[in-house]
């Protein structure tokens, strides 16, 4: 239990000093392509932790280095509720105001994940958790959506399907302070 608490704290109690904070560009990506993870805002000083490969297969990201504000959505292509909430996440991405990061878990292979990203029109970077290394932080089920505030702290964790675009936008305003 101490390990889990320590892990979660180290993931989200990052400072913005020395941050790699690229402009949010995912919403400018055309549906039908896998987005590079170079768009993810990270703390370049954080060099160890849970490394996840990007679905573009060209890079990886250390989970603990992700900087907020950000919304992290954990999904699987086999998950029906994950499919149900995708239109709401696409609408959020279209605003260009929130950094969205997807994490695919329990997938048979990376190609299945890429196919899902393209079919669902996901215009944000997605990471691939091939060995379930994030289960200790995010839990066993999907979907799960985490809201990281500007201090990279978990402001809110929504377990289960997002019920509406309004719910998502209200939560972004409430927990990230971003009005849409």
Structure overview:
By secondary structure, the chain is α+β, with helices and mostly antiparallel strands. The protein has a single domain (2-176), classed as Glutaredoxin (3-Layer(aba) Sandwich), CATH 3.40.30. It is 30% helix and 21% strand. It contains five helices and nine strands. It has helices at residues 2-12, 80-95, 110-120, 135-138, 165-176, and strands at residues 19-20, 42-43, 51-54, 60-62, 70-75, 100-105, 126-129, 144-148, 154-159. The strands form two sheets. The chain has a seven-stranded mixed sheet, with helices on one face. A two-stranded antiparallel ribbon has the order 1-2. A hairpin with a 5-residue loop joins strand 3 and strand 4. It is globular, with a radius of gyration of 15 Å.
The CATH superfamily name is Glutaredoxin
Q: What is the total number of structural domains?
A: 1
Helix content: 25-40%
Structural class: alpha+beta
Mean pLDDT: 84
In the CATH hierarchy, the third-tier topology is known as Glutaredoxin
Provide the CATH architecture: 3-Layer(aba) Sandwich
Number of strands: 9
Q: If helices are DSSP runs of H or I spanning 4 or more residues, what is the number of helices?
A: 5
SSE order in H/E notation? HEEEEEHEHEHEEH
Q: End-to-end span in angstroms? A: 37 Å
Please state the oligomeric state of the protein chains shown: single chain
CATH C-level class: Alpha Beta
- The radius of gyration over CA amounts to 15 Å
Shape: globular
